Amino acid sequence: MNLKFGKNLSLVATMALSIFVSLPATAAQLGGDARAVIPKDVQQLIVVDYRAMQNSEAAMNLKARVLPPELKQLETALKSSGLNDNHDVDELAFAAFRTANGGESTKIVGIAQGQFSLPDILASFKKQKVKATKLRDNVIYPMGASGMLVSFLNPTTMVFGASDAIKLALDARDGLTPNFLSNDTMMQQMTVVDTEPIWSILDQKGTQMMMRGVLGEASQLADYDTVKKRMTASRYTMNFNNGVKFNLDVVTADTFTAATMSSLLNAAAMYKKVSGTAIEKTAIDNTTIDSNSGTLQVRFSSSDSQFASLLQSPLFQSVVH
Q1: Do residues 275 and 281 touch, judged by C-beta distance below 8 A?
Q2: Which residues, at least 6 apart from 189, have a Cβ–Cβ distance to it below 8 Å?
Q3: Are strands 198-202 and 231-239 parallel, antiparallel or unpaired?
Q4: End-to-end Cα spacing for the chain
Q5: Per residue in 207-217, pLDDT tens?
Q6: Who contacts 253 (Cβ-Cβ below 8 Å, separation ≥6)?
Q7: CB atoms inside a 10 Å sphere around CB 192
Q8: Which of 173, 176, 191, 260 is nearest to 219 (CA)?
């Protein structure tokens, strides 16, 4: 589990940590418009049952501890948009995607699903003298003083984020550029996990970045350089029902790659166990790492009290910063 092994996390791995929340056994699924507004080159997609999250004190405390600045900005903007997020938003998704010009540039958009009273929201905008702009048939509104923008795709779906990210998302939705629906690899990963209340999928590059953070010093070994390009995607689910359960699957090109990654990760766990605190050692004992048919499998489970103690540990603090 990536709470234990790495020294530092990339943006992608930090985003994954940001949505460790306590949820009931409901599904967080994306509708057609929500999928279409996500650009094709997704590095990571996180989807969460937002209503359940808001109703859980433990979830909100944990989210406050690890939510990175990029997502804090989006969430703050959501709350300033005229929505009552406790009642209107059912599912909340964050999509990190690469821009068409390649390189290392990554944009993030938020997508909210629920039952939005558009007449009331638009009346509130009008009262506040909010000035909208148009991009083709899309109407875009500023979200308070946050600098973020929001566009309602229909009465149940809205997309929000920075100006450049929103434009790219709407270009994808309007068919000017490829969208998530044409990304067969990521769509396939989504179908495995989207019946869960919280889930995330990562593409090849996102997976490589996450695993480098998870492995820490072990990622400097020659074996990692050999296998990292043979990791194709990854997915995880997590819930806090009857304790904490975290399931991570890393899809690789063959059984040898998955077995090698399993060996590397087990070695990293043993190294950390030698130098870790008592609660960290317990967390490692509660983690199983294996491979099956080309997939690296990481399974972690603990009691609520054990996990609460882990949050206070120096190892956890070093991972989330």
Answers
A1: no
A2: 201, 233, 234, 235, 251
A3: antiparallel
A4: 17
A5: 988 888 777 76
A6: 230, 231, 232, 294
A7: 14
A8: 260
Core vs surface per residue 58-84: b (16+ CB within 10 A) or e? ebeebbeebbbebbebbbebbeebbbe
Q: Please tell me whether the overall predicted TM-score, pTM, comes out greater than 0.85 for this model.
A: no
What is the bridge-based pairing of β-strands 89-98 and 106-114?
antiparallel
* Residue 177: pLDDT over 70: yes
Task: Give me the amino acid identity at 59.
Answer: A
How many Cα atoms occupy the beta-carbon half-sphere of 62 within 13 Å? 25
Which is higher by pLDDT, 58 or 78? 78
Is pLDDT larger for residue 215 or for residue 46? 46
- Three-state secondary structure call for residue 30: coil
In this structure, the number of other CB atoms found within 10 A of the CB of residue 155 comes to: 13
> CB–CB of 239/196 below 8 Å?
yes
Q: Which residues, in sequence order, are bridge partners of residue 152?
A: 158
Break the chain into its structural domains and give their ranges: 1-20+198-321, 26-196
Cβ atoms within 10 A of the Cβ of 276, count?
A: 18
Mean pLDDT value of segment 185-211: 90
- At 16-32, the pLDDT tens digits run 343 333 334 456 789 99
Q: What are the CB-based long-range contacts (under 8 Å, 24+) for 121-130? A: 121/81, 121/82, 121/83, 121/152, 124/82, 125/82, 128/82
Amino acid, res. 13: A
Q: Where do runs of H (alpha helix) occur along the chain?
A: 11-18, 32-36, 50-54, 57-66, 69-79, 85-88, 118-127, 163-173, 184-193, 204-215, 222-227, 255-275, 278-285, 304-311, 314-320
Residue 296: partners with Cβ closer than 8 Å, 6 or more residues away: 248, 249, 250, 252, 258, 261, 262, 265, 289, 290
Residues 94/38, Cβ–Cβ less than 8 Å: no
